[in-house]
Amino acid sequence: MVILQKRLPSLDTTQVIELASTIIEQPDCKHVDKVASYETALTTLGKVAMYCNVAQKEQLLNKFLDSLPHEYQDNQETHLMFIKEVQNNNPTLMQFKDLVIQALNRIKTQDCNNPENELLCDEGRKLISQLLC
């Protein structure tokens, strides 16, 4: 059996940042039809800040942290990834402890106040409680 694979162009980090920034800078980016793309772009900027050596690390991380909690597509996965990075003392996140704690508190508060939104999975609830005890 032959598997056909569509090749996507490779993007360098600068191009990824530009693409994600273009998405979040659109005037209607928070419209219900576009908010999932908006949150995905913000998560992408957060991952670039946490895992790549880029000059604008602080700016990108601020955009990501300020956007938390996310409320739409893949929100549990985004929150769990973030919580695990905090738990593992991600060096970039540890440079911004106050902002990280504020983001964790917003996620936990929103999850407690609106459990029907399922912002956290059971593992995420357990870990965030351990981090904020």
Helix coverage percent of residues?
A: 55-70%
Distance between the termini: 54 Å
Uncertain residue ranges: none
Major sheet details: none
Number of helices: 7
Q: For the CA atoms, what is the radius of gyration?
A: 16 Å
**Shape from CA axes?**
globular
The string of secondary-structure elements, in order, is: HHHHHHH
Class inferred from helices and paired strands: mainly alpha
How many structural domains are formed by the residues? 1
**Approximately how much beta-strand content do the residues carry?**
under 5%
Seen as an oligomer or otherwise, the chain set is single chain
How confident overall, as mean pLDDT?
91
Please tally the β strands and state the result: 0
Question: How would you characterize the overall build of this protein?
Answer:
The chain is an all-alpha fold and 133 residues long. It has one domain (14-131). The protein is built from seven helices and no strands.
How is this structure best summarized?
The protein is mostly helical. 63% of the residues lie in helices and 0% in strands.
List the helices and strands and how they pair.
Blueprint: H1 13-24, H2 35-51, H3 57-67, H4 75-87, H5 91-94, H6 97-113, H7 122-131
Helix pairs in contact: 1-2, 2-3, 4-7
Task: Describe this protein with a few key phrases.
globular
